[in-house]
Amino acid sequence: IYQKKNIKLIIITISSLILIVILAYNLSNTFNIRINEGKNDFRNIFLKDNLSNSFGVRIGSYIILPKLLDETNLLIGTGVGDIQSLVSKNTQEYFGEDSMFSVQKGLLHNTFLEILITYGIIGFFIFMMIIYSLLRINIIDKEIIYLRYILVLFIIFSGISANLFTFKEFMFLYAIFISIIVKEELNKINC
Fold first, then answer.
1. What's the pTM?
2. Of 46, 47, 83, 88, which is least packed with CB atoms within 10 Å of its CB?
3. CA 170 → CA 89, 180, 189, distances in Å?
4. Residues 6 or more apart from 45 whose CB is under 8 A from it?
């Protein structure tokens, strides 16, 4: 019974997401324009080998990744202040000073890569343990459980295409959620 309920919930969730995307594409000009721009960006990347667009900048991060890893102490990383200059230097060497990458100011557009290069394997491991601990904390309130899953999924999926820690909105959401979790844990200790 439990598995059938989970499968039904997964099907409803996926169907709802598909419906939301279809409605947003057809009813929202902004969403429609952004999706069409994304399709054009992908065509330019794969058909014209042109990385001078939003997705191209992110793919460029993966292109220079081996060079960045060669210049990084993988155990402890480059340190907080050095990553931007390291990324800027490598993108300008690889793509040229007149490319779109010269205005990116050393951003990798990937939270996980930035943590790995900045803080090394040790820092990356600690970051992953924080995410794991968010999933392992025993929370009783269903709404907070859902918020936890939303936050973790947001970190995982958004972290692939952006450096989340540069967005004040994300930091605000993260701080609120961590506060809720700490409050839940303190309530359990005091009971």
1. 0.71
2. 47
3. 28, 15, 29
4. 51, 53, 55, 56, 59
